[in-house]
Specification:
It is a single chain. This protein has 12 helices and 3 strands, in the order ααβββαααααααααα. It is mostly helical. It has one domain. A 3-stranded antiparallel sheet has the order 2-1-3.
């Protein structure tokens, strides 16, 4: 599936899901502790300089926004989720032959539509998860990051979600609260995950290239694949526990690895931009927004961000 066709498929799935999900009643003060928390986060976002969005303005009667089935071949590793094949799923899962395909079943709590509702699945999530998801989706809809490639938009939204959640928790619950103490660790834990996912994605890609070149047999490639995913699983489980994300891939196969790498590929670079921004939320957001009137390829975007992350030269004497 081409990137354009994949984006169209995503839009069609999102529209179909949100058409039903967004018909629920408006979120109002006093609805529930979860709704109050979302409203407080939206107030925080306005003060932090987020663009306004209609995300989480309505309750949904559906448990999830949508059910997606991402899949690919047994010896194929797409570079990101836009290159995975995609079908609509159901609450029961995906009607795909997993003997032929690597499948990742994804029930969505929220989607970056600008109108994603507050679903029961998100309301049941941990406080830390809710506090990360809301600014993640809202920053995703910021018009000033829409020109970035998907792999940079996802990493940027992930980072801003973590930073916003931690700063909100510090203000809302206090610096010694368990919510803040947990959330302020998330950017670094995800950095560890990102480096791990990126390293194994490269190893798996090299393995599949060797198979395509005829250097190894299919059976050898499949056995080595199994070993690599077992090693990845062991290493990711050894990471510190996270509260707002899964520290292992979404699925222990090619589809799960390609999906997660969309978020991790450039996260280390953006984390460096955050460090150069003084670990400040507003400064980091300003740096992650694209300069106007420029068309960005992934290469040019990376070069721009690398310049922002580079240390300042020492002063002349």
């Amino acid at each position: 599936m081409t990137p354009r066709r994949h984006i169209l498929a995503l839009l069609l799935l999102a529209v179909a899901g949100l058409a039903c999900a967004s018909r629920g009643r408006l979120v109002k003060a006093g609805d529930s502790p979860q709704a109050e928390l979302v409203a407080s986060m939206k107030d925080f976002e306005r003060q932090a300089g987020f663009e306004e969005s209609a995300n989480f303005a309505r309750h949904s009667s559906r448990l999830h926004v949508d059910y997606r089935c991402y899949y690919t071949g047994k010896l194929e590793l797409p570079t990101d989720y836009s290159k995975l094949k995609l079908r609509r799923g159901t609450p029961a899962g995906c009607a795909l032959n997993e003997e032929k395909h690597d499948v990742f079943f994804y029930p969505l709590e929220a989607a970056a539509s600008g109108h994603t509702p507050l679903t029961p699945s998100l309301s049941k999530a941990s406080v830390e998860r809710m506090l990360v998801v809301v600014p993640h989706e809202d920053f995703h809809n910021d018009s000033r990051i829409e020109d970035w490639p998907a792999t940079i938009r996802e990493a940027a939204s992930t980072l801003v979600g973590f930073l916003s959640a931690a700063e909100f928790a510090k203000e809302h619950y206090g610096e010694s609260s368990r919510e803040y103490l947990r959330l302020q660790r998330e950017p670094e834990i995800f950095l560890g995950k990102a480096k791990l996912i990126n390293r194994y994605a490269e190893l798996v890609a090299v393995l599949y290239e060797a198979r395509r070149a005829g250097a190894i047999s299919r059976s050898t490639a499949l056995e080595r694949k199994r070993e690599l995913f077992e090693q990845l699983s062991g290493e990711c489980r050894a990471l510190p526990d996270a509260r707002s994300f899964n520290k292992c891939p979404s699925a222990s196969n090619n589809a799960g690895l390609a999906f997660d790498r969309t978020y991790t590929k450039h996260y280390p670079l953006l984390h460096s931009v955050y460090l150069r921004s003084g670990k400040d939320l507003k400064s980091t957001m300003a740096q992650l927004r694209t300069p106007p009137n420029k068309r960005w390829s992934e290469r040019s975007a990376i070069a721009h961000l690398e310049a922002l992350a580079a240390p300042s030269p020492p002063p002349l004497r």
